[in-house]
Amino acid sequence: MSSIKSVAKFLVFVIVGIVTIVVGSFMLRGIMHLWDRQKKSDEDKKP
């Protein structure tokens, strides 16, 4: 019975890690997109 609990804890740990990596990658992609947008708008403002 305890081996099932340890396997379940390990699976939850792996699933949470994968979800964290996916969410973090989407957040980084969004931040990079915002930075690119700011750089383009700064270049447009320069005379």
Number of helix segments? 1
The biggest beta sheet, please? none
- Computed CA radius of gyration, to the nearest angstrom: 21 Å
Structural class: mainly alpha
Number of domains: 1
Strand and helix order: H
Strand content: under 5%
Oligomer: single chain
Average pLDDT, all residues:
86
List keywords for this structure.
about 45 residues, about 0% strand, single chain, mainly alpha, 1 helix
What does it look like?
The protein is rod-shaped, with a radius of gyration of 21 Å. It has one domain. With 47 residues, the protein is an all-alpha fold. The chain contains 1 helix and no strands.
Summarize the helices and strands and which ones pair or pack.
Elements: H1 2-45
Give a brief outline of the structure.
Helices cover 94% and strands 0% of the residues. It is mostly helical and 47 residues long.
